Amino acid sequence: MSDLFEGRTMTEAFSYISGGNAYTLTLGFQPDKVVVHNLTDWTGTAGGFPKSTWIRTLTTDTDSYQQQVIDSATGGSSFNFTFEDTNGFTVANTSGGAADYRTAITGITQADPCVVTATAHGMATGWEIRITDLGPEMTTARGMDELVNKRYSITVLTDDTFSLQDVITGEDIDSTAYVAYVSGGSVMGISRTQTLSSAFAFDPITYKLTLGTAVVGANGEQMFVECIRYGSRIIALGDIG
Questions:
Q1: Which domain holds residue 212?
Q2: Do residue 154 and residue 224 come from a single domain?
Q3: Full pLDDT tens readout for the chain, 241 residues
Q4: Is residue 147 helix, strand or coil?
Q5: Measured between alpha carbons, how far is 54 from 64 in angstroms, rounded to an integer?
Q6: Which of 26, 83, 161, 227 could staple 31 via S-S, CB 3.0–4.6 A?
Q7: Contacts of 203 by beta carbon, 8 Å cutoff, 6+ apart
Q8: Does 196 map to a domain?
C-alpha cells in the first residue's frame, strides 16, 4: 500500500501469538516508531522483556531499546532499559515507486553521432535526458564540457549505450570537436515515452519491518505491536544547549 495520507499522524496495530521465529510485518505506511509489547512478560518475573522500541533514523537496522524486569520483589517489580543490537528490528521494504532514471556515465565518444555509455541505463528511444556532473566547474577535469546541463533526445543503441539528438531538430549531436571525455558524469531521464498499447502502471513501495528473535517473543507468548507515523515531519531541534 502506498503512503496516501502525507501530513497526517497514522497508526496501525497488530496482535499475534509468537512462534518464536523472526516475522515480517507488512505495513500501510512507513513508520517512525514501532513498539512491541510482550503481554506475557507483563508480570513480575525477573528477566522478562515486556517492551521493545524501534525509532526510524535514530537507530540502525536490528537495533532496539528494551525494558527488562530485573527483579521480582514483593510489592512491585524493578525495570531496567537495555540496548539490543542483534536480532531486533530490520527494515525490509520492497523497492518501488517511480524510478528517477539517473545513472552514471562511463564513456562518451568524440563522434557523429555522439554516443554515451551508461551501464543498464533503462531508458528508451525518444526520451529526453539531461547530462550533469561534467564540465569545467568540476574539481577535476572530466571532459565533454559542451554537453553539461543541456537537454537531448536519445536513440537507444544497446542496454548500455545511446546516441544524442537535438531536442528541436532531431539531428544527431556531432561531438567530434568536443573536449575529450575523461571520467564521471551522470545522465537523468526527464521525460518518458510509452507505446499506445501499454498501460500505465505504478509500482508502489511496500513497507515492511522484520521483528527479529530478540523482540518477536518466545513460542506461545501473546504479543501486541504499535506502529506510529508522526504527521508530515519530525522537527529536528538540533543542539539546544
A1: 10-94+204-229
A2: no
A3: 444 455 678 899 999 999 999 999 999 888 889 999 999 988 767 778 889 999 887 666 567 778 787 776 655 567 777 777 778 888 888 765 555 567 889 999 999 999 999 988 888 898 899 898 887 777 788 889 999 888 999 999 999 999 999 999 999 999 999 999 998 888 888 876 554 444 545 556 788 999 999 899 999 999 999 999 887 666 666 677 7
A4: helix
A5: 5
A6: 227
A7: 95, 96, 97, 98
A8: no
User: DSSP states of 18-80 as a string?
Assistant: --SS-EEEEESS--SEEEEEEGGG-SS-TT---EEEEETTTS-TT-EEEEEE----TT---EE
Measured distance CA(97)–CA(201) in Å, rounded: 10
Residue with grid cell 556515465, as numbered in its chain: 105
CB 224 within 8 A of CB 105: no
Find, among 124, 127, 240, 144, the residue nearest to 185 by Cα: 144
The three cell numbers of residue 86 are 542483534
Q: Which residue has the cell 572530466?
A: 142
- Residue 134, classed as helix, strand or coil, is coil
